[in-house]
């Protein structure tokens, strides 16, 4: 497949893993904003890496133009998919003012899928591309749900976002409130669904989860990236 990458407010780890997957799996990365300032050519898939600053009109315009060149648009990584730590205060710290103007790409553009992770692993990206190439709707469904609908998010939140004290509406991470990310919201009912496998703790980039038969969340470390939710084998259920 012909792939393009638009990198916005990001650390570069998501983009690096995507490039590795394209090289190893035979997908053609025909354009990357990290190497080319020009317009995005017509491609099969556009990956958007990083969050978007509401105050950056140039970035929003660039995103809009890039999306028009792709058949499929994918939020790559937690910053693009949810705003990640760029949007949410880390743990219980007071947020800096810029947190309130940072949004996921899906606020400004219609996205088809999202791959959660900080960063998403090479295996996760490769698995998604395989499902997309094969047109496997069942495998693609979780990525579709996580792409969410953020158009209604307001840059002027009525109160600071403070980790677990925030309402679901303030930190809405998907189009389905029942799938809002974070074990602190008891999405994966620990007594009923959690098997204590430890996948969430092993995948957490902030070392915010400890396992004592069931996961315990250290809110002072959590960056609300959603990696634990995307990794949990029980997070997607009928």
Topology:
Blueprint: E1 2-7, H1 13-25, E2 28-32, E3 43-49, E4 52-53, H2 57-67, E5 70-76, H3 78-82, H4 84-87, E6 102-103, E7 113-115, H5 122-134, H6 137-147, H7 199-203, E8 209-212, E9 214-217, H8 227-231
Parallel strand pairs: 1-2, 1-3, 3-5, 5-7
Antiparallel strand pairs: 4-6, 8-9
Helix pairs in contact: 1-5
Question: Which stretches are low in confidence, meaning pLDDT under 50 for 5 or more residues running?
Answer: 158-187
Class from helix and strand fractions: alpha/beta
Q: How is the largest sheet built, in terms of strand order?
A: 2-1-3-5-7
Shape: globular
Helix segment tally: 8
Walkthrough of the structure:
Strand 1 (2-7), helix 1 (13-25) and strand 2 (28-32) form a beta-alpha-beta unit. It is built from eight helices and nine strands. It has a five-stranded parallel sheet with strand order 2-1-3-5-7, sandwiched between helices. The chain has 238 residues and is α/β, with parallel strands linked by helices.
Gist of the model:
This protein is an alpha/beta fold.
Characteristic terms for this protein:
alpha/beta; Alpha-Beta Plaits; five-stranded parallel beta sheet; Rossmann fold; 238 residues; two-stranded antiparallel ribbon; single chain; 2 domains; globular; 9 strands
